[in-house]
Amino acid sequence: MKRKLYYATGLILIAFAFTSCDAIKNCKICQQNTYNGTTLITAGSETEYCDAALVRIEATPDVTVGGVTSKWECR
Q: Which pLDDT value is given to residue 8?
């Protein structure tokens, strides 16, 4: 009986170990927007980015050409 209890406890712990990585994930919803001064011209579609892709998006600098600025915004 003890052996079955140990196996069941071990199985539950292993199941928690495999699903716990989802809680650690660093994800945000980002979109690329274009502004003319402070006025929003176009808004990109919202997409979820995680981990390395999110770091790349957040490290991308704003681009301004002729008073029109394109930048990534994440929430």
A: 78
DSSP per position, 20-61: THHHH--EEEEEEEEEETTEEEEEPPPEEEEHHHHHHHHHPP
User: Rounded to two decimals, what is the model's pTM?
Assistant: 0.64
Rounded distance between C-alpha atoms, residue 75 and residue 55, angstroms: 13
The CA dihedral of 49, 53, 59, 62, to the nearest 10 degrees, is -60
CB 50 within 8 A of CB 26: yes
Q: What is the C-alpha to C-alpha distance for residues 34 and 14, in angstroms, rounded to an integer?
A: 47
Phi-psi region of 55 (alpha: psi -120 to 50; beta: other; left: phi over 0): alpha
Residue 34 · residue 70 · CB < 8 Å: yes
